[in-house]
Write a structure and sequence with these properties.
350 residues; 5-stranded parallel β-sheet; SGNH_plant_lipase-like; GDSL esterase/lipase At2g42990; signal
Length: 350
């Protein structure tokens, strides 16, 4: 009977893979949210909210438009790399990946979505509850792949990244009449906080214990909001920024409450307001030059299909810009923000 031996090099590869999956303190990055962290799920649903065409992705490895609303990588990709995992987090709905890829990182996020189901309905994207259902499905696949005990450990030790909320205000509440007829802006924030609490408790019940929960940025400084600011054209819309500060305050209180109530749960509130405000108002301190307009097209209103390959006005060097399109930051800005928060995350979770 022949005896088969594994060569030392193959054995090393197998051991290294097992160590990365089972031995790392953060064995995987699991992502929920909107276009700030969607790595391509919307490519596989019938929606206009897509970015799987040039010039999106032109600075991504291989120059490939993956569906990320960026010229390159997202903050979630950089966070994964910083924890010693893959340099990109794959989209769950992308059929070119499978559970072997998702064992060290997976993204359920969908561009255009929000806490509010009505926000997802605007562009026909994945609602937050459905992201959670995909996560349940992922858990079953992970258990089948690794066995229940190892899968449970990955679920427990993974870092969960959540980035969502801006669309509820800009795409839904201030754009369409339904929610404004039902809620004052303060009531609508309370409504969103209630949904966020249910969502976070659902993830806790499903096994999540380590989380980076992102607030919302100074959304009045997005190029699209500057150009439509009728009170002071091309300046940041102060009312939207004030709202972001208010909503972040409510999110922070929710995080403090859940950290007290949920045994073993550690939620880091990643409030992006101050760092992004700093980048927007003092771009030169970060090696950037332009913060009032974006790289793509005129830099004032283009995003999605309007930011197409034939737009001759698109900048040649996105690394000089804070924003890639009228709504989304460049890879350079994503890296700065990710690095800013990683200093805290590695102390909490590494």
């Amino acid at each position: 009977m022949a005896t088969h031996y594994l060569s030392p090099s193959i054995l090393c590869i197998i051991l290294a893979t097992l160590v990365s999956i089972v031995g790392a303190k953060v064995p995987a990055i699991i992502v929920f949210g909107d276009s700030s962290v969607d790595s391509g799920n919307n490519n596989f649903i019938p929606t206009m909210a897509r970015a799987n065409f040039e010039p999106y992705g032109r600075d991504f490895p291989g120059g490939r438009a993956t569906g990320r609303f960026c010229n390159g990588r997202l903050s979630s990709d950089f966070t994964s790399e910083a924890f010693g995992l893959k340099p990109t987090v794959p989209a769950y709905l992308d059929p070119s990946y499978n559970i072997t890829d998702f064992a060290t990182g997976v993204c359920f996020a969908s561009a255009g979505t929000g806490y509010d189901n009505a926000t997802a309905n605007v562009l026909g994207v994945i609602p937050l509850w459905r992201e959670v259902e995909y996560y349940r499905e992922y858990q079953s696949k992970l258990s089948a792949y690794l066995g229940h005990r190892r899968a449970a450990r990955i679920i427990r030790e993974s870092l969960y990244l959540v980035s969502i909320g801006t669309n509820d205000f800009l795409e839904n509440y201030f754009t369409l009449p339904d929610r404004r007829s039902q809620f004052s802006i303060s009531q609508y924030q309370d409504f969103l906080i209630e949904i966020a609490e249910v969502f976070l408790k659902d993830l806790y019940r499903l096994g999540a214990r380590k989380m980076s929960f992102t607030g919302i940025s100074p959304m009045g400084c997005l190029p699209l909001e500057r150009v439509t600011n009728l009170d002071d054209p091309f300046s940041c819309a102060q009312s939207y920024n004030n709202l972001a500060v208010d909503f972040n305050g409510r999110l922070r209180k929710l995080v403090m409450k859940l950290n007290r109530e949920l045994t073993g749960m550690r939620i880091f509130f990643a409030n992006p307001y101050d760092i992004i405000w700093d980048i927007v108002t003092k771009p030169d301190l970060y090696g950037l030059e332009v913060s009032s307009s974006a790289c793509c097209g005129t830099g004032l209103f283009e995003m999605g299909f309007l930011c197409g390959r034939n737009n001759m006005l698109t900048c040649s060097d996105a690394n000089k810009f804070v924003f890639w399109d009228a709504f989304h930051p460049t890879e350079r800005t994503n890296k700065i923000v990710s690095d800013h928060f990683f200093k805290h995350l590695k102390n909490l979770f590494h």
